[in-house]
Predict the structure.
Amino acid sequence: MDTKKATVTITVTDENYFNKALQLKTGIASSVTIYALSKLPTIDNAVLNNNTVTWSGEDLDKFNSLTIYAEDSNNEVYPLYKTENVNDIKSKSAKI
């Protein structure tokens, strides 16, 4: 059934567009929903060197737990480090 209406959903993650007037033109009557989403916290990488694992990322204080896994030469995966302490996560390194 053609109702001659459209639904448009837009997700904005660039903070430069937050709290700004946006104009959207559609050829027919439309319902528009715009979501402004902050960037998610990230873990960008982890490196093991001499029994110390280090990691980098953004907004690390927003994580409530961190588990770093390793993969051996047989493609078996096992946990290398785990914490639920936000201060440990923010420290970006741990002895294993």
